[in-house]
């Protein structure tokens, strides 16, 4: 291929953009790939440029290209607005613009032509474009490898939404299988040790994970409250419950209140990320803050990789997002699982039933996780040595996988060598 020019296409969601930013960083800086063009929807522009703002050493290698959002792209007024926006961006706004970009770049009389497309496996269309334009292609899974094989339920959606999303994802499942056949490579942000059965079933998929931010700013798309790290310094070792639900999950007022009361009942220190767009928090937090005092700290966003590395963290109570799962396990932290949608339910099964590094919550009447249930599961998790021991074993395996000679290390190097042929 000579000097490679890689076109990177993430699915337009925070948890999918960040690992592909890290992969782009690895290819550009660590492995010296000639040039990378990273494509994303326009409404992510500020966040992505902020994440790369301190990366002056790779500014000349990573080129950012934003796709304009369609006017009135989503008329869905529900708690699933984020899902609809991601679907609209990924399946409707991006394809034509990406096609135009490739045609423009590859029409130039220069050595700058695209030589490979690396695309999120949720996007079935890029591999078809790659085939039509004679470009090499690789799919990338930002989720667990098993998500290549199994589609999770969308239990939080209404029936009308469910039918619409099912239609899209049935089409996606078909195009995914086709794109997997068309792709020269299939990469996954996972490790062989975590999902050996899935990798044995789909041998074309190569684990290259965990793709963790090589420094603390890369991939963090929201402004962080770094003062929480000083607060953590003041807490005893293995004492703090870290609570975070990612960028998309929302808790209604009842769930939010039960979580707050559950944290209060534990009588343990906690660091709780409450996003500024979570309106359920407005009327509930003031009296709560007065009661828990300095035992609890609430922030709008935290530097998560630094947080889970901190010696004071005892466990993570979270939404079971794949990136957060890898970050916690890479630091030997046991988990409390509160899944919300999509692959999070599969991740919870892994965490609780396969790896045995955490516990899920039982829901009263199938709907509400009560404050007592939260308190009891915290005590059960932290009162047993099993979950911590298992998490520490996975920490060693995950870190060994990206060391020289590890499975993920070797797979990524093989991919880089192929790019440079």
UniProtKB/TrEMBL annotation:
Keyword terms of this UniProt record: Glycosyltransferase, Transferase
Pfam families named in the record: UDPGT
Hydrolase recorded as keyword: no
GO molecular function, one term: quercetin 7-O-glucosyltransferase activity
Protein family (similarity comment): Belongs to the UDP-glycosyltransferase family.
Protein's name in the database: Glycosyltransferase
Species of provenance: Acer saccharum (Sugar maple)
